[in-house]
User: What shape does this take?
Amino acid sequence: MKRSLLPVLLALAPTSARANGAEVVAPIFITGLVFGFAFLIVAASLYAGHRRAQMRHETIRTALEKGIPIPRELLDPPRASDPQRDLRRGILLLALGIGLAAFLGFHEPGDSSWAVGFVFVLLGVGFLVSWRLSRRSGPAGGDPAGG
Assistant: This one.
């Protein structure tokens, strides 16, 4: 009952590519591999979050069964608002945008595709501004030296 997809792909391929089946199958396989890995990364991330919530709920249930008071942090965990996270993201996106703009600018000198990197540069600048404003807003996330 198992049939190979190679004859079907070869029939759909241009005549120049029919000489070698690898020329047809390789791009499809590589594309599937790239999207498959992206899907696996997203699925693993979602599963890890689900598993963490499940473990937290199990801990709360066990504490309730034993009559132990539940800390508020366990019921409503605080969100990570680390200003250093904005700094790291800002520097990373800024460097990515500059690198992408330089690559696209040198790759196609007459083309304006380099402007795609500008999107990442602006995102990086936004994160850096957010980091700077969070440092000024208060001592909770700011530098104690006030720098």
